[in-house]
User: Fold SRPBCC family protein from Streptomyces sp. R11.
Amino acid sequence: MSGQFEATVEVDRPVEAVFDYLADGRNDPQFSPRVLGIERVPDTPTAVGTVFRSTVKDAGMKTAREFRITDLQAPVRIRWAEVSKNTVTAREGGYDLESLAGGRTRVRIYNVLEGHGVGKLLVGLALAAARKDADAFGTRIKAAAEAAIAQR
Assistant:
């Protein structure tokens, strides 16, 4: 079984700046409390093939995660796929960004979760939790991006 969750939010910052902020996955702990630590490999600007290695805490358990950037089209699209082997993974995910009037940006985030092994039994619970938190997650992205990006 697999399924998708998504959220859409409007950030009061220009699309290029929001893209740069989100493309640097090292910013994820600023809006995702489950991310305990993250590094970019190689430690160069994000490009297709860049891997982000993180330690996350879900349901009280710490796991190692690796996401590879699969598509990067500045300033409108970022795509990733989880390459780590966990019971529930994000088969694909991404951000779609759209420039709005007044230097604002519409951001849509999504992830497609799938279960492996015993994770096939757990993915429904993970999806329910992610969907329940989706709007709040979008709000945390907005707040973090606006705090990190200077207003012009």
User: Anything to note?
Assistant: The first strand starts at residue 2 and ends at 11.
